[in-house]
Amino acid sequence: MKKIKQNYRAWLVQKNEFPKDGVLRDQLKFFVNYAVLAPSGHNTQPWKFQIKNTGIDLFVDMLRALPKSDVNHRQTLISLGCALENFLIAADYFGFGCEVEYFPTSQQEIVARVECSKRVAVGKKGDHLLDYIPKRWTDRHQYSKTPIEEPIIHSFKNFVFEDIQIDFVGWDQKEKMNVIADKAVEAGIVAMHSNGFRDELSQYVKPSSTDSTVGMPGHTLGVPALMSFFLPTMIKRFNMAQVNKMKDTSLLKKHTPVFGIISTKDDTHRAWVKAGQCFERIFLEAGRYGLHVAPLAAIVQTGEYYKDLQKILRISMRPQVFFRMGYSKRQPVHSPRIMGWEVVGK
């Protein structure tokens, strides 16, 4: 059996290790082991947790925020929404009911306060989203041309939260999809024009052999091991989005069956967190159907490209999350991870 490096061991969480006879604090800490497996921009994992008497506080860890590419912390809070949703899914599986209060104090670093109470026996039977959390991974590669069945697409809309809209654009709307693809590629190029953006990104792109617990190793980006050592320097010096324009355009137009867009009525911190929760639910549900997913932030984060999305989709809500989805036989390639116990405050 292949040895798992320390910076990937968080993915080995086992539900049978839940301390069912332990104290509440230990049970809540166990749920954090699932929360930290959420996706985040550049895989910075910008979260930390504080265990309270009957719940947890979820904080932004500003040391792992992205001041150049995420000035207003939109992507950071979407990431925390994903982590929050994983926590709630884990709590549900082990028989806990949770009440969430968003931004409970004037201290904006506290994103959510979660109160938990035991309601049923531990361990739900049957297929549960908890089982898909350790299997989740971001697949940035080509997807097959197999269409996604309409009932599956429709089922994702069951995960809509209040004041949230989900739109899907697939190959049955090819012209619209091509326009969106062009805008997504253009937004990526514009984002990479910024020296600050490239410098920040280069700090989180790692060689495939990295021991770092954050960032994106070359193998997660489809880069050969040897080249991965040079990739950070290349990103820092060149607009790689411009260099890869034709390749990226082909990826979106020819190897992506469906685009998904999550939009919110309000463009607030609370809305960003809830958009992240919705996205994580869809991400995990996609795994249940054998679908692969990859978010692309530039079209909703850079300049006013989100307005182009609004016009194309004919919506008034604010697009917050843009992602591609499809089938693939590619084997999971996880990114490094900080262990749950390391992000829980004393």
UniProtKB/TrEMBL annotation:
Organism superkingdom: Bacteria
Keyword hit for Flavoprotein: yes
Keywords: Flavoprotein, FMN, Oxidoreductase
SUPFAM superfamilies: FMN-dependent nitroreductase-like
Protein known as: Nitroreductase domain-containing protein
GO molecular function: oxidoreductase activity
Protein's organism: Candidatus Magasanikbacteria bacterium RIFCSPHIGHO2_02_FULL_51_14
